[in-house]
Design goal:
alpha+beta, MgtE N-terminal fold, 4 domains, 7-stranded mixed sheet, 17 helices, 19 strands, elongated
Length: 412
């Protein structure tokens, strides 16, 4: 058997099949491959012959080329085989989607590249570029791509693709966890939005819970709910624990009480308790937007002691916008910035350098008031207090920026 180099499946489709005497026996309709191989082996051809579909096994094939397929037996000696319904064929691969992590997008398989060594032929890669699409559209009129980068093949090796399920509906790129970890959640979310429901579930199974949480928060709420419902409950609870509290609350509030309670019961007790408290606030209030993850320090601490605590806590950047100061009863008494903390002597008490005029809001206030305060005072974070002035949470500027724009009746 011989196989020309750089032979694509599209270049075989519709080509005549001739026996060893030159007699035409049909034309190529599909290629049967072995899914179990690292690089799927070609096991035979599906040919159309006088209105019938038949299978020609690999041992009967002598030559695959861009112009024709030659057999090494005569027409009467061909070992025709019935086409098994679940036989794996190249038509099951074409037009399937692949996640391209380099371009942060979902791409489509436009063509399939074959290679051989004289004894076997196998799939080596798939073409997801424009060249593959042109090759299929133009069929025999395709003359190759040498007139610019835009017609060059964009190949992905088969061995970096996940094994295909039996129904052939899905083709996934085997993505190393470290590459996923380096991608921005917004890019991952863009990929997720272009996947099918099942593909999204499989994609999220590859992600570290923290990355999955950040990615989930970037997609539309309706899709968040759909993804969460499709997950294993334990996995869903792990991801909720990693989400920002206000985002987790928004998501949980979209679920049924039964589903929400089930997920909360699987979470860490302290995390679940915090979320249950936040869920008590009505949607659109400051309480529903806040997080209980914030930095507050006792008045009697020195600047050096606060710095040491910060080193131990290693908080996320969002929670270091401001450092809040509370009295012995937990009431909000002041606020200071990192700069004020650093430039003052290490033995100075923070009560001496804090600003006592703190803009705050109660949990029952609506989001219009939240937006007004952020805009008027150019805030990066806003503390939320209860009726006794006890600090119970903060709202960050990110939460305000994500609010729908609606300035009707609101003076900025």
């Amino acid at each position: 058997m011989e196989l020309l180099t750089d032979l694509y499946v599209s270049e075989l489709m519709g080509k005549p099949v001739i026996d060893r005497s030159g007699r035409r026996v049909g034309k190529v309709q599909d290629i049967i491959v072995d899914r179990e191989s690292t690089f799927p082996l070609v096991r035979g051809l599906v040919v159309r012959q006088q209105g019938e579909t038949k299978g020609i096994p690999w041992p009967d094939i002598y030559l695959l080329s861009k112009k024709f397929v030659a057999l090494q037996v005569t027409a009467q000696d061909v070992h025709y085989e019935p086409i098994v319904e679940d036989a794996y064929r190249t038509s099951m691969i074409l037009d399937r989607q692949i996640v391209d992590i380099n371009g942060a997008k979902v791409v489509r398989v436009n063509d399939i590249k074959l290679a051989g060594d004289g004894n076997v032929a196998h799939i080596v890669s798939v073409d997801v570029g424009f060249a593959g699409l042109l090759r299929r559209l133009l069929a025999g009129r395709w003359a190759g791509g040498t007139n610019g980068r835009w017609v060059r093949p964009q190949l992905i090796r088969w061995d970096v693709l996940q094994p295909l399920p039996q129904d052939g509906e899905h083709l996934a790129l085997r993505v190393p966890a470290d590459k996923l970890a380096r991608m921005h959640p917004a890019d991952l979310a863009e990929i997720v939005e272009n996947l099918s429901h099942r593909e999204r579930r499989e994609f999220f199974e590859q992600l570290d819970p923290e990355i999955a949480a950040d990615t989930l928060a970037e997609v539309e709420m309706e899709m968040q709910v759909s993804i969460l419902k499709g997950m294993d409950r334990e996995r869903a609870a792990d991801i909720l624990e990693e989400m920002e509290q206000d985002e987790a609350v928004d998501l949980l509030s979209e679920l049924t009480d039964e589903d929400s309670d089930q997920l909360l019961s699987l979470m860490d007790h302290e995390d679940a308790s915090d979320l249950r408290e936040l869920l008590e606030y009505e949607e659109g209030t400051a309480g529903s937007m806040m997080t209980t993850d914030y930095l507050a320090f006792a008045e009697e601490l020195t600047t050096d002691e606060v710095i040491q605590r910060l080193r131990e806590l290693a908080p996320d950047a969002d929670y270091v916008y401001y450092l809040y100061v509370v009295d012995s009863a937990g009431r909000l008494s002041g606020v200071l910035s990192l700069r004020e903390l650093i430039v003052n002597p290490p033995d100075r008490k923070i009560a001496e350098i804090m600003r006592t005029k703190v803009i705050s809001i109660t949990g029952e206030e609506d989001e219009k008031q939240v937006r007004r305060l952020f805009t008027k005072y150019s805030l990066l974070a806003l503390p939320v207090v209860d009726d006794s002035e006890e600090l119970i949470g903060i709202i960050t500027v990110d939460d305000v920026l994500s609010l729908p724009v609606n300035t009707r009746g609101l003076k900025m």
